[in-house]
């Protein structure tokens, strides 16, 4: 009996949740667009002949693309799209890079020799 009263007290303290969801009101139903079937659902599946025609067309397109020269032709097209510098500017940039590398090497070799002399003097 005490258990029954305890359960009733617990049930009174908790809100009651209905077992079924509430039905949407008329205003809510008007705002929601009607579910329309997608174009994929309304299309009929392609017949075997259509699939074979599409596959043949794809094979022809692939053969035509490879007949253009393939990889070599693609590389040539890409090289033509590159904006190349003038020959004089390219030579000057090359010598600039060589000068920077040589200068950096000289500085590092100088620092190395100084540190070697200091290390020999200490030890």
Automatic annotation (TrEMBL):
Sorted UniProt keywords: Membrane, Transmembrane, Transmembrane helix
Chain positions covered by the region annotation Disordered: 1-69
Membrane-spanning residues: 90-111
Biased composition (Polar residues): 36-45
Organism annotation: Chlorella vulgaris
Name of the protein: Preprotein translocase subunit SecE
Entry's Gene Ontology cellular component terms: chloroplast thylakoid membrane
Domain of life: Eukaryota
